[in-house]
Amino acid sequence: MTSHEDHDDRSGAEVLLSVQGLQKHFPVTKGLLRRQVGAVKAVDGVSFDVRKGETLGLVGESGCGKSTTGRLITRLLEPTGGKVVFEGHDITHMSASRIRPLRRDMQMIFQDPYSSLNPRHTVGAIVGAPFRIQGIKTEQGTKKAVQDILELVGLNPEHYNRYPHEFSGGQRQRIGIARTLALKPKLIIADEPVSALDVSIQAQVVNLLEDLQNELDLTYVIVAHDLSVIRHISDRVAVMYLGKIVELADRKSLYDTPMHPYTNALMSAVPIPDPARRKDRERIRLQGDVPSPLNPPSACRFHTRCWKAQEVCKTVEPPLVELAPRHQVACHFPENAPEPDRATPAATVSA
Ligand SMILES: Nc1ncnc2c1ncn2[C@@H]1O[C@H](COP(=O)(O)OP(=O)(O)OP(=O)(O)O)[C@@H](O)[C@H]1O
Ligand code: SF4
Ligand SMILES: [Mg+2]
């Protein structure tokens, strides 16, 4: 996938989305009086910036808070704490009426292309709905606009009057994407956009997202549970574990020198096509299940499953710090970390 390899470095571009210390605690209540007895700490202090034209991949196992993060950014959920700043506007607690115009600029693509499409509506009605809801009149009428978008996402514009069930899974996800694009959004949050699709179709949809990004200058946050899906499309990748970001780095840096033990474990679960490279990689198996976010482990939340865990990991939370340029990690004993004290030329040669 060469197109993205030369995707320019966006580090100088304007920040479109800034997420700062974002939290979502879902209260757990008990009894008739619905007394609060605890909280599911689904997202617990997440911070990152996304620049214009950039793709941030958000990965982690089921339940780590990826979807919740996406829903908080698009304000489908109200944050418990922290801040969401979009194009310089603090939208964290903006009222529904004030946020409506911004909704056009921020759209979400969901995992299941079928359940998010109304089976009784034609493709024309589905893709055209955003125009009607927002009261937008296009110059040549909605039908022409919808047909243009269908063409853009690789669907036959003649199929305007067909129903979702007449399309394959991959085509339905294209319909979902077409609907999202109808309002020319600036930011798209795609929540597992290809997980429900056949592996053979996944690459096509990922390529489509990539082409659309170049053509329409879109900014993406793409949520996935494994690292392979977002490998080519992401400029930067954030790895989440139990409501927190444990590692955040440029794509190349993350894949070449993963530092957090959890990232290493996720990485070793990704098949490597090249047998020469496969040989020198140890396969790490993660022990046990993800603990409950209702009662997360103390300090480093990964300590119950980490093979490098020491006493300090249970008592002192490792902060997310930049250990290499544009490479942040939250771990007391990171892998692959540059050691400035010992990085003498002699050490480099003998390594
Ligand atoms: N409305 C809710 N009320 C209570 N708990 C919730 C709610 N929504 C999500 N959770 C919990 O918050 C945690 C994070 O959920 P979330 O859906 O964000 O995870 P995810 O990373 O998207 O997982 P998956 O890969 O399975 O989609 C989970 O423990 C989930 O059960
Ligand atoms: S801080 Fe400790 S437990 Fe956590 S990932 Fe690092 S080594 Fe493992
Ligand atoms: Mg999810």
UniProtKB/TrEMBL annotation:
Database matches in InterPro entries? AAA+_ATPase, ABC_transp_ATP-bind, ABC_transporter-like_ATP-bd, ABC_transporter-like_CS, Oligopep_ABC_C, P-loop_NTPase
Query: Which positions are tagged coiled coil?
Result: none
Q: Where is the ABC transporter domain?
A: 17-267
Keywords noted in UniProt? ATP-binding, Nucleotide-binding, Transport
Q: Name one GO molecular function term.
A: ATP binding
A biological process (GO) annotation for this entry?
peptide transport
Does Transcription appear among the keywords? no
Q: Which Gene3D superfamilies match?
A: P-loop containing nucleotide triphosphate hydrolases
Origin: domain of life: Bacteria
For this chain, the family text in UniProt reads: Belongs to the ABC transporter superfamily.
Q: State what protein this is by name.
A: Peptide/nickel transport system ATP-binding protein/oligopeptide transport system ATP-binding protein
What is the originating organism of this protein?
A: Streptosporangium saharense
The organism's taxonomic lineage, starting at the top: Bacteria, Bacillati, Actinomycetota, Actinomycetes, Streptosporangiales
